[in-house]
Write a structure and sequence with these properties.
The chain is of the alpha/beta class and about 325 residues long. It has 13 helices and five strands. A five-stranded mixed beta sheet has the order 1-3-2-4-5, with helices on both faces.
């Protein structure tokens, strides 16, 4: 299966976020149940040996993509003939155990899994990626030093928890390696799950207008539904950029720096392309250059883009401060 979006910047994968939220809820329910039963063995706990796994193309869907809804999965692309790999891999394996379930290390032999190597666009090894809530992102390439690796992993687990609610796996030293992971009982289906799933399917099919309507249907009955709010902001953004000529939009924005509509369209494309700070910066500069209705239109679009990225993202917090300075 081809890896999904290679960056966590920009538009969030709604299906992955929903899966992550459900996984977090199940994990919390399992821990609560274990506590009620007297603090015995953790429900769903894994062995330390299960924190390092070998993955191939056939098992990528289950071992990496599905697992990434519960815990960040770090991918170590290596080969037997690669000497730097032999230096890096033992460090990653040791840190996987030391981080005690905050991430799982998946080792991928590139000689036996050429398709995965091509799909991730890897030009040389060792190469290290991560998959979080179904989304892939590059971490580093080459035999990095341990301080750099630790810093990168710390950032990864922080982003996974803050943006996707992934707190990792419970680890039990007494658990059997390779044993089936116990899960909490399935969470009851919410009143709007069917509509939300229909919206996600519409997004996946490129029916952005249908997704917009599905999210609006949820919000008409439940105005505070956070998942529908995020989904609507996303779907409206994708609907707006559908059919745009990126080259012409960029040219118009460069030629007309005070044209609110031109800058708004370019900012939408920036965000869809994952250039979050560029999108925010463009609109903040346009706020400074415009006045009246144009200025208000730019400000409102910027607030909409904040919703797409998420209020907890530090880039949103920084942009809010910059917007306040531009306005006042």
């Amino acid at each position: 299966m081809q890896p999904r979006n290679m960056s966590m910047s920009g538009v969030v994968d709604l299906a992955a976020v929903k899966a992550a939220q459900e996984a977090k809820a199940k994990a919390e329910q399992a821990r609560a149940e274990a506590a009620r039963q007297g603090g015995g063995a953790l429900a769903g706990a894994v062995s330390p040996a299960d924190l390092v796994i070998d993955v191939d193309e056939a098992g990528f869907e289950q071992d990496v993509l599905q697992r990434s809804a519960e815990v960040p999965v770090v991918l170590d692309f290596w080969a037997e003939w690669c000497q730097p790999c032999k230096q890096l891999s033992p460090v990653l394996e040791r840190l996987a155990v030391e981080y005690n379930g905050r991430f799982v290390l998946a080792k991928i032999d590139v000689d036996a899994n050429q398709m995965l190597m091509q799909q991730f666009g890897i030009q040389g090894i060792p190469a290290v990626f991560a998959v979080v809530a179904g989304q892939a992102l590059p971490l580093f390439q080459g035999a990095a030093g341990e301080p750099q690796i630790r810093q990168t992993l710390d950032q990864l687990v922080e982003v996974a928890e803050q943006r996707f609610g992934l707190t990792g796996l419970a680890v039990d030293p007494d658990a059997e390696a390779g044993g089936a992971v116990q899960t909490a009982p399935a969470m009851p289906e919410g009143p709007y799950d069917t509509l939300l799933e229909a919206a996600v399917r519409a997004l996946d099919a490129g029916d952005f207008g249908g997704a917009v309507q599905a999210y609006k249907n949820v919000l008409s009955d439940d105005p505070g539904n956070s998942e529908a709010k995020l989904g609507l902001a996303q779907a409206e953004l994708l609907h707006r950029v559908q059919g745009l000529d990126p080259q012409q939009v960029r040219k118009d924005a460069a030629d007309r720096p005070t044209d609110a509509e031109a800058q708004i369209a370019a900012a939408d494309l920036d965000l869809v392309g994952g250039h979050v700070e560029d999108a925010f910066g463009r609109l903040i500069e346009t706020v400074q250059r415009t006045a009246g209705d144009d200025r208000d239109a730019v400000r409102l679009r910027l607030l909409e883009l904040f919703e797409v990225v998420g209020g907890d993202d530090p880039r949103v917090a920084a942009a809010r401060r910059a917007l306040a300075r531009a306005l006042f």
